[in-house]
């Protein structure tokens, strides 16, 4: 078989060891974190190389369908029946659980670069948010919404809609940059109001001609405790 680079071998080992440990493959984001790669495209480049060299199979370019065929040394990857059963079960969505896609990060502070697509998901019970086909999640960066209970590193759940009432917390785009704030429409301008007394609002005036759009209303917050 074609020899792997050291980096490709490391990626393959991480995938195989993750499956052996928990019964299903890691996400693109988890692989990136383990490898110190911030770009999901960078991780995907390694996965494509592994597929091309015959060490890995994947369906529809999704991370949860990653299947190692061989170890880096060329030895066949042995997925035991017990682990295989766990993997199949992990891939079947529970009818009471909503798999919400995390499509990128958003600033709770000054706007940051436009949202980058990822393959990460957050599983949330339908009883908490309901099942909305137009629901997505964003990772928060910054502290401008702390007085509304939204902190750096939290995930916010956003329901896609462009028409929201004043005072609602929204995910918005301003000149291609993403931010989360409370929205207020005022005469001749839009005010994006932070929930942090030490920070100033963002004003988008009609006369400025800035491109502004509302991605949706924030309907929930999720926080990891470790």
From TrEMBL:
Represses a number of genes involved in the response to DNA damage (SOS response), including recA and lexA. In the presence of single-stranded DNA, RecA interacts with LexA causing an autocatalytic cleavage which disrupts the DNA-binding part of LexA, leading to derepression of the SOS regulon and eventually DNA repair. Belongs to the peptidase S24 family. The active site is at residues 144, 181. It comes from the Bacteria. The keyword Transcription applies. This is LexA repressor. The record marks 108-109 as: Cleavage. It comes from Lujinxingia vulgaris. Its EC number is 3.4.21.88. The gene is lexA.
